[in-house]
Design a protein that fits this description.
Blueprint lengths: L1 H21 L1 H9 L5 H11 L9 E5 L5 H10 L4 E6 L9 E5 L5 H11 L4 E6 L9 H22 E12 L4 H9 L2 E7 L10 E9 L1 H7 L1
Parallel strand pairs: 1-2, 1-4, 2-3, 4-5
Antiparallel strand pairs: 5-7, 6-7
Length: 220
């Protein structure tokens, strides 16, 4: 039985690698020197869903590894803006981005983020985070919702009034309740499935527009 299980895992790994290597977005990312195919998810959302990032904006990228979103964000805010990326994993440096290795939901991570922000409020919070998959659909779903809740909590602390949030999520247990919670703090909520997301993936993105700071204070 153990041998059969190992063989099945090997076949899955091989199948994943085959899909990955043949993915047109992976090939495009390699050709254009992107850190990952995820860059195209962000650029599509920014360009096609009215999420404009002004020059000099302040953006925080939660769970930023491998850094492809931070690279794109830095290009848009320009030298007068601030892009801060934080992740548990170490990253190679990115021009125009302040990188922090740590847990954004920990006291140390919060202190490092506050120092990097230099007293400025945040215009946009983004997160392409996903949990470490356990292989149990319910467990994985609840871990995803947990990350969503931490991301929202961070946004309520640091977003300026009228700011925006963008985060990855999964459809499933806990999603409806979380979406309602998100609606307490943002005037508009949109579900987005970018073309760069694999059709077989359960991921999609929640875009919250126009942060209601006063409302957020009442629910924290």
């Amino acid at each position: 039985m153990a041998q059969q299980s190992k063989s099945k895992a090997a076949r899955k790994t091989s199948a994943w690698f085959q899909r990955h290597s043949n993915d047109p977005h992976v090939k495009r990312a390699q050709k254009e020197g992107k850190r990952s195919r995820a860059a195209f998810k962000l650029t599509e959302i920014l360009d096609e869903h009215g999420l404009k990032i002004s020059k000099n904006a302040v953006v925080v990228d939660l769970g930023c590894a491998p850094g492809s979103w931070s690279v794109e964000l830095a290009r848009r805010v320009g030298p007068g803006g601030i892009v801060i990326g934080i992740d548990l994993l170490p990253l190679d440096g990115i021009t125009g981005v302040t990188l922090i290795q740590g847990d954004f939901d920990s006291p140390d991570g919060q202190a490092a983020l506050a120092e990097a922000l230099q007293g400025r409020m945040v215009d946009l919070v983004v997160s392409d985070m996903a949990p470490e998959m356990a292989g149990d659909k319910l467990v994985d779903q609840m871990r995803m919702i947990g990350l969503n809740e931490m991301t929202l909590h961070f946004a309520r602390q640091y977003l300026r009034p009228g700011g925006d949030i963008l985060m990855k999520t999964f459809m499933g247990e806990g999603y409806d309740a979380f979406r309602k919670e998100l609606g307490l703090s943002f005037k508009k909520i949109k579900n987005i499935k970018p073309a760069a997301s694999r059709k077989t993936s359960s991921e999609f993105f929640l875009l919250g527009r126009e942060f209601k700071a006063e409302a957020a204070l009442s629910v924290e």
